[in-house]
Amino acid sequence: MRKKDAHALLVTCITERKEDFYRLAFSYVKNQEDALDIVQDSIHKALIHIESIKDVHSIKSWFYKIVVRTSIDFLRKKKKLVFVDNQMMDYMNHGKEEVYKDIDLHNALDELPVQYKTVIILRFFEDLKIEEIADIVDENINTVKTRLYRGLKLLRMSISEGDLE
């Protein structure tokens, strides 16, 4: 397939799934501007390296992989600095509980090691199949299943500990 065709497929994939890619980046950084920057950087990287894609039919998984890696790289650079935007501060100051109905889950998810967090987010928040996740994280399918199982176990333990406190 020609470069022009791969480019067109990439643009179509990004256009159709832009909210999914943004949501994935946001799940890592918890900040709108940073998530948008990650998606933008990912698009830039994809356009530069479009020739490196081996199978154009796996362009979705290939781009998910770029978004995940760009998000992880961003977090490494930031070293756990968490900035809260004004909107979040307003919600916190007013104590609107309905906004935070899953806060325990999100906090527990943020505490997981990246390898478990990534697999859980891709499986349950992005609704990807195990095979697609294995392709995105460059791991064996059984490794992904093991990480998913262990990650869910750690998540359960973390949430249970929170209930006891």
- The shape is globular
What composes the largest sheet? none
Number of strands: 0
Provide mean pLDDT, rounded: 84
Q: Which CATH-level-2 architecture of the largest domain?
A: Orthogonal Bundle
Question: Would you list the SSEs in sequence order as H and E?
Answer: HHHHHHHHH
Number of helices: 9
Question: What is the C-alpha radius of gyration, as a whole number of Å?
Answer: 17 Å
CATH class of the largest domain: Mainly Alpha
**Proportion in helices:** over 70%
Task: Give me the CATH fold name of the largest domain.
Answer: Rna Polymerase Sigma Factor, Chain: A
Structural class: mainly alpha
The separation of the N and C termini measures: 58 Å
Classified in CATH, the superfamily of the largest domain is RNA polymerase sigma factor, region 2, helix turn helix motif
Strand percentage: under 5%
Total of domains = 2
**Which residue ranges are poorly predicted, with pLDDT under 50 across at least 5 consecutive positions?**
95-100
Structure characteristics:
single chain, mainly alpha, Rna Polymerase Sigma Factor, Chain: A, Arc Repressor Mutant, subunit A, 76% helix, Sigma-70 family RNA polymerase sigma factor, RNA_pol_sigma70_r4_t2, transcription regulation, RNA_pol_sigma-70_dom, RNA_pol_sigma_r3/r4-like
